[in-house]
Amino acid sequence: MLPYPQIDPVALDLGLIKIHWYGLMYLVGIGGAWWLASRRLAGFDASWNKEKLSDLVFWVAMGVILGGRLGYVLFYDLAAYIAEPAKMLRIWEGGMSFHGGLLGVMLATWWFGLRNNKSFFQLMDFIAPLVPIGLGAGRIGNFINAELWGKATDLPWAMVFPTDPEQLARHPSQLYQFALEGVALFTILWFYSRKPRPTMAVSGMFALCYGIFRFIVEFVRVPDAQLGYLAGGWLTMGQVLCLPMILGGLGLIAYAYNRQAAQEAAR
């Protein structure tokens, strides 16, 4: 068993203001995505300047934060937030939904594309390889908060989390998700998007790989206590939300390549 590193969730205590590591991880994700996007900008649209890119990053970040919070409220704990609406503002305590954040990003991207003469999937294909930076940083934030831990196990890298009332040795599922959703997903999308791909293919690859990775980790991650297991006691809400991503990702990739083949045949 590995000892859990006791990291104070508060990175900087200024008295009235406390800066939490979880919030800083969002800044790392957004800043890293902006930096990488600026390096890929010329290959996406040489006419865009840094100001245009900053506008895109801003609206996507708003989609992540607002969508992620609203998604958690709606998908995971609606009753608690109806009972105490002020909890919705306490983002530093955790409680963000990736799937809600994704919907927020999609809505922000659609709106930004309308205003800037870009199709939805042109922008989504550009954004998709940037997303794992934020996902990885967010999972490190979950680990520091000692939340979203896994099931009990006797594996040598199991950890006892201070927030666990049972004090059992558990899977560090946050680190599994960091490795898969952050490192592995970034690597796949980075190399896949380096070559020209038909529109929608990169978005489809993101949806497919994220859905598979998240679905797998959910088998060893403890579901939210207020929801538990669904569908006969083995599916989690995370897995239910990932199923349409997997199917949608496959559909997008197939459609993208079939459409490209049809266009080339018609020339």
Descriptive overview:
Pathway: Protein modification; lipoprotein biosynthesis (diacylglyceryl transfer). It is found in: Cell membrane. It is a multi-pass membrane protein. It is an enzyme of class 2 (transferase). Keywords: Cell membrane, Lipoprotein, Membrane, Transferase, Transmembrane, Transmembrane helix. The chain is mainly α. It has one domain. The protein has a two-stranded antiparallel sheet with strand order 1-2. Strands 3-4 form a two-stranded antiparallel ribbon. A hairpin with a 4-residue loop joins β1 and β2.
- Write down the secondary-structure element order: EEHHHHHHEEHHH
**Count the strands?**
4
| Global Rg | 19 Å
CA-to-CA gap between the ends? Answer: 62 Å
* Count of helix runs: 9
Give a short account of the largest sheet: 2 strands, antiparallel
Strand order of the largest sheet: 1-2
Keywords:
two-stranded antiparallel sheet, globular, mainly alpha
Write the layout of secondary structure elements.
Elements: E1 10-13, E2 18-20, H1 21-44, H2 50-75, H3 78-83, H4 98-115, H5 120-127, H6 131-144, E3 159-160, E4 169-170, H7 173-192, H8 201-217, H9 237-265
Antiparallel strand pairs: 1-2, 3-4
